[in-house]
Amino acid sequence: MPVEIVFETHSWSQDNDQGIATGWLPGRLSERGQRLAVELGERRREDGLTAVFTSDLTRAVETASLAFADTGVPVLHDWRLRECDYGDGNGMPAVQLHRNRSAYLDKPYPGGESWRQAVHRVGRFLNDLPLRWSGTRVLVIGHVATRWAFDHLIDGTPLEELVNSDFGWREGWEYRLT
Predict the structure, then answer these.
(1) Which of 13, 20, 165, 170 is the most buried (most CB within 10 A)?
(2) 58 is in an annotated binding site
(3) pTM for the model
(4) Is 35 marked as a binding-site residue?
């Protein structure tokens, strides 16, 4: 049986306010992000979720904690759902880091990983998901790399296309993992 996956990005962070590409740094939610996380919970609490999976980075953990506090829905942290590791670029201005993003499709960022490596890492999470969660609806809170992995591995969108496109934030994406 398939797994229905709802994907949401972590809520707005202090680094988002400052135009910083956080990468593998923990990051913290801004006041705005805290309000948006509570709204996420209100939007998804009655959505038939069996579990919430989140990246283990602080900004994603905070999002899940605020959204699903006192709901009884298990929140599980998984490092494989992290953002791309920008290596030496973690914490640098996002405009500067993403100026030449496609150059790092297959070549790792200095001291980090490539986008394809990040997608492959998230793919290992997807491979494991049906082992326990087949036939359920789950929420995943992650990052750009998480969503691109879902778009690429589940929907078949070429990674070359994704790495050259705008992220296009919205309230949730839906996937069906068969």
Answers:
(1) 13
(2) no
(3) 0.96
(4) no
